[in-house]
What we know:
Elements: E1 2-4, E2 12-13, E3 24-26, H1 61-77, H2 86-100, H3 109-115, H4 122-127, H5 132-155, E4 167-169, H6 181-201, H7 206-226, H8 229-242, E5 249-251, H9 253-264, E6 272-277, E7 280-286, H10 291-295, E8 303-309, E9 316-317, H11 323-330, E10 337-343, E11 354-359, H12 365-368, E12 371-378, E13 384-391, H13 399-403, H14 412-425, E14 430-434, H15 443-451, E15 457-464, E16 469-474, E17 485-489, H16 496-506, E18 511-514, E19 522-528, H17 529-532, E20 542-551, E21 567-568, E22 597-598, H18 607-620, H19 622-638, E23 642-644, H20 647-671, H21 697-714, E24 733-734
Parallel strand pairs: 13-14, 14-17, 17-18, 18-21
Antiparallel strand pairs: 1-6, 2-3, 3-19, 4-23, 5-20, 6-7, 7-8, 8-9, 8-10, 10-11, 12-13, 15-16, 15-20, 19-20, 22-24
Amino acid sequence: MQSDAGMQSLQTVTPGGSGPTRRRYLLTGALALVALALSPAGAVAPLSQAQAGPAALAPTASQVKATSLITRIIDKQHYLNVSLDDAFSSRVFERYLENLDPNRSYFLAEDVARMSRYRDKLDDALRQARLDAAYQIFAVYRARLGERARQALALLDGPFDFTRDEDFRIDRKNAPWPRDRKELDEVWRQRVKNDVLNLMLAGRTQKEAERTLRRRYEALARRAEQFNAEDVFQIFMNAYAGSIEPHTAYLSPRNSENFQIQLSLSLEGIGAALQGEDEYTVVQRVIPGGPASLSGQLQAQDRVTAVGQGPDGLLVDVVGWRLDDVVELIRGPKGSTVRLEVLPKGAPDGGPRKIVTFTRDRVRLEEQAAKRSVIEVFGLDGAPRRIGVVNIPTFYLDAAARARGETDYRSTARDVARLLAELEREGVDGVVLDLRGDGGGALSEAVELSGLFIPTGPVVQIRDATGKVQVLEDGDDTVAYAGPLMVLVDRESASASEIVAAALQDYGRALVVGEPTFGKGTVQSLIDLSRLARGAAGDLGQLKATVAQFFRINGSSTQHRGVVPDLTLPTASDPSTDGERSFDNAIPWAKVEAARYRVGGDLLSLLPTLRARHQLRVGVDPGFRWLLEEGAAQLAVSNRSTTSLAENRRRAEREAERRARYERESQFRLARGLAPRKEGEEEETDASAAKSPEEDVWLIETAHILADMVDLVRSSPRLRTVGGGAGGLAAACVSGPCADNPGL
């Protein structure tokens, strides 16, 4: 589940056309709130009247209409040819149960066995817009949720033996469903004990921890009573949509409103995209230009555990809350203050929290804008090499100002062209285009930005659901910068970022450095269901459906594989667990015919020498040693599936982790000429965060690699090209007679 705490997480591009048929194409994806619904009316008996719970929920006429529209749209317009059959029905069933009970802590094995009667019937139910089964399954979930909330409250009254060394299974995603109530009771006894211990390890007394948890479990019990039909429909429809591929989603009327806020940047907040993971609200992304980004106090994968209003308002525990309810607490009017209690990225559940304070504001375009800096490194001859850096947080376009005819409207390509001119006037030896963390944005800007470094030619190809391929080209034959160029990417570089990196790599215009990118190479269309429904009462919500796929000019897709760097920088992460590759049903990599374009100078011939010099530096660089050791430690914590419930053992483990983290950071700081932190000073979970470019380990190494490339190019006449650059813009033709394309 994903939402946004008041700022942008998505950008759109609107192709030609107007009126009701116009679609908005989304270049970066957001996983909406999970949702599902179904059941053959009259064909299958209810699971149990007793399990229907208080105020039994039932599908509405609007939901039946919406189901009919959604299945028809997916059948006719989705990029994939989806068959509603028994195999697909089974996938929807499994995803619905996973969305309701991801950690297998509510349903019993006997519940799942009874509900399995629907496993091969959901395809028929969806096709016929019958939703009863989804509501009956949800009734069982709601009943079990209420039971467990009441049990948790009762357990708080009993004693806890924190001297007993027993292990609690934190991650139950792959565990068998509990066989009976006795087994599930034991799971929850350990869970409540672990919740108490976590808060004690975070600095609460046992009584304070129990008071906090009583409020948490009471909120859980209330939530079981307060679910409405929209909740059920949202969860079920997203189990259906999410069974197709990760970026198709149903947005309920409430979440449609939230989505529009993300698109228009119209709401004040802290500027952080949030998502629900198990019981936590997790920071998925910090939005450039927002209060969270400007403060440097919040980073991706931090977990929000409590929210307080004003400088001294009560911190409300939000562990286990619905995502949209947490978002409502964090949002607020411009100028007001919100405080978050945060469990930092990589910290164990019982780790120390930190309190961060933000003044709510709007995202400022100027803070999102591309920025430049200069890094000085030394060549092999000992002489300094000045490397310019252009950092692009997102691909933005002030379309409204452009539509008004303003000549100075802001856009990524225009701003970068200006920055490149400034860097050239300062006499830089080369430029690094830093696309790390850039999740995408306006497609037109990706095309125009690529055009700053090449003459006219194709930039990206788009294939729609009918198989038709459209080639988008840069039509401006001017080159803003022809000098040595390198593109720095990471696992969060997605969509439009991948288009630019891929195009410059395919042209041979730049070497790409970093780690494999996110791998989102698909296009989504946002469809307003109410506009399609004739005579429907009320808002039916919206469907975000995947309708096309991006392809590089060499014919390869950026989907799934992402852009693979020419030179990969060391990292502790496993690329197979990040980005599109981590989804079990992502659209696979594919290939189309290559476009006609010219490959530039032979930069790849430099790779063996560049890689050898890079490895020599990395072998002795304390910055990379810190990154790898810190990353490995965080992975070890996040990969744990069990934890001890003995207080002394947990405190000893936590102290050992804290001490090891302190030692790693101290060594890093000493190597950078900085004084180590004193024991007890507030620690940073990422010692390279919020620091100057000179202390950015990856960026510094990229500057060294580019400086090496500059030296090699200067010593090789065959690699010198337009403007003395290393791009090689007039070399071999690829795929067909280039004369057929007047821009080549």
